[in-house]
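Sequence, structure tokens reproduced for absentees:
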Amino acid sequence: GHLDPSSHRKVLVKTGLILLILGHLNFITGALVHGTVLRFVLTARDATSLHYGVTNSASVVAALLTISCGVSALLLSRYLGRAAFKWALLCLSACSSLCCLCCLLGLLVAIGLTLGNQGRVLLAPCSVTSIALTPGSRECPFDPTRVYSSTLSLWAISFLLEALEIFFSIRCLLLTLELLRLGRCCHGMLR
């Protein structure tokens, strides 16, 4: 429904803070995945590892967009009368929700590829030093014991964070449409 200005401020502050927290958590998750595994795995010749890198980089960019959207929501809550802040939040929330949706789909494909190849692409940089394929016989630039489960766990966390970012970015978008009084043209969609 329609909110009075003080209610708009409260909703914008809550949504902005939630977007800031989600964006930072997703940024940290993406940095952990890249720093622990993907920096060793990425090769331009392997399409799967290239997909991992592109998806992880897009996830970090989406996290930065979400953080920007949260900051913009907080600024708009302070200066509710400024049209420039409303339009900035409209653009940022639309871009953030679309980018997060693309990352969500990319993460889903990356998780599926990893489950499908049982982590062989993640362990590709490891060279076997002896004929016996024991876990201790591999020389890796990283600890290979929990790479498969750790990467999948971090991607699952990032997947959940992306879904939450989409929800709150769309919430910001709809609230901004109402503030700009553009909600009347798409009144049925907002309900």
